[in-house]
Amino acid sequence: MKRTRKNTRLGVLVVGVVLILLLLVIAIARGGSGLKIGGVKIGDVTDSSIALSWEPVRHAEGYKILLRSEAEDSFSDALQLDGAQTSCTLTNLTQATPYEVCVVAQKGSNETKHPAVLQAMTPPMQGKLDAITQAMDGTDQLRVTFTPNPKAASYELQYMIGEQANFDQAQSLTVQPDTDAFTVSPVQYNQQYYFRVRALAGEGKNAVAGAWSEPEAYFAMEGVDLTGIDLNKPMIALTFDDGPGYNEASDRILDVLEKYGVTATFFMIGENVLDHPENVKRKVELHCELGNHTMRHDHLGSRVTQADIIDCSDAIYQTAGVRPSSFRSPGGNTTELIRQECAKENMPLYYWSVDTQDWKYRNADHIYNAVMNNVSDGDIILMHEIYLSTADAVERMIPALLDQGYQLVTCRQLIAAKTGKAPESGTQYLDAETIKNETT
Ligand code: ZN
């Protein structure tokens, strides 16, 4: 009986000790050295976000994400999540920056001790192309400018020629961050180019590339300079025939063009060109387009001979050092012979869509109103550079056209800008988009 009571006390003691040990084991398993977190992975990293995932921790009540950037001394709490979550995305981060992240599991007052530290570098922002322009100084190059990125260590450009953007076979160029343009040279003219750019940041294992810009297309046209022309804004071509004149009208028209930094196209008579070389050279300096209007203006339409055209081109070349890039028939009517000779001499032909009849009215108000009341985007406007009344009208007309938002360009620029292709030699244009090839 005595022995039995002793055994019972011993049993209670053993059970008690076992229970305490069990509780201790459970406590250790669930606290302190417990709440271990595994399988933490970095997912998608963009220029402003880092995605994370991890394996669920049993009984975790929540997760805390710690973050610090290269510039910060210590971690700070970036996100607090409930225990059901096993992934998250940190947002509003800075581009091209190395970050360290940790995931901490929480239960009551316990949390993961010594969580693993993962590193991720955000890439630079997506590249952005600004403009593609064609050098017209004979250097045979395309200039591709882009928006600079203060975090970039370098920039990469890819370009290719083809019907549509496909960069599998693209060529690649790299420039340092102190430049804001790529130079592509030599240029294959009359070809469709595509470009895209991206920024690169970081060094060594942290080197990371930003996303490519949207591709930009550019049609490289031989001898067409579209520098400074906004393709989305209205533009017209002023044209002046029969000069240079034997009074000051021609020079006054050039004065206005120079004052406002605009250009025009001059269809000149060969004999007048030879008599006024300084005026013709000034037109070249002002980036005006030189046009052939036959040697003597003594044959109209079907009576224009091959020699009328060739002699005028030679007179312009002899005077200005450049050959004319356009032709207008005296009176405007054209023939197969004219078109064939123009095709041979690389000259498109230009008719007009607005006729000021300045030769008939010789009145500045009439000429001014004829333009201002009829002008629209893409027009080719006919005037003559030999009348003082035309010069008077031009002095008022050009600022008024600029006020209305028109860009004043050459015929060649107008066709190129509006059609995306260089004007075709031997083809006659009536305005930016209308071809008038019927012959007399
Ligand atoms: Zn004429």
How is this fold's topology laid out?
Layout: H1 2-30, E1 41-46, E2 49-53, E3 62-69, E4 76-82, E5 87-90, E6 98-107, E7 110-111, E8 118-121, E9 129-134, E10 142-146, E11 154-161, E12 171-175, E13 181-184, E14 191-201, E15 208-209, E16 216-220, E17 235-241, H2 249-260, E18 265-268, H3 270-275, H4 277-285, E19 289-292, H5 306-320, E20 326-327, H6 336-344, E21 349-350, E22 354-355, H7 358-361, H8 364-372, E23 380-384, H9 388-403, E24 407-408, H10 411-419, E25 428-429
Parallel strand pairs: 17-18, 17-23, 17-24, 18-19, 19-20, 21-25, 22-23
Antiparallel strand pairs: 1-2, 2-5, 3-4, 3-6, 6-7, 6-8, 9-10, 10-13, 11-12, 11-14, 14-15, 14-16
Helix pairs in contact: 2-9, 8-9
The chain binds zinc ion.
Zinc ion (ZN) binds next to loops.
Keywords:
440 residues; alpha/beta; Immunoglobulin-like; TIM Barrel; 3 domains; seven-stranded parallel β-sheet; 27% helix; rod-shaped
Task: Give a brief rundown of this model.
With 440 residues, the protein is α/β, with parallel strands linked by helices. Helices cover 27% and strands 28% of the residues. The mean pLDDT is 91.
Overview of this protein structure:
With 440 residues, the chain is α/β, with parallel strands linked by helices. The chain has 3 domains: 36-121, Immunoglobulin-like (Sandwich), CATH 2.60.40.10; 129-220, Immunoglobulins (Immunoglobulin-like), CATH 2.60.40; 235-429, TIM Barrel. The chain is 27% helix and 28% strand. The strands form 6 sheets. Strands 17, 18, 19, 20, 22, 23 and 24 form a 7-stranded parallel beta sheet that branches. Strands 3, 4, 6, 7 and 8 form a 5-stranded antiparallel beta sheet that branches. Strands 11, 12, 14, 15 and 16 form a 5-stranded antiparallel beta sheet that branches. The model has no long low-confidence stretch (mean pLDDT 91). Residues 241-242, 293, 297, 330 line the site of zinc ion.
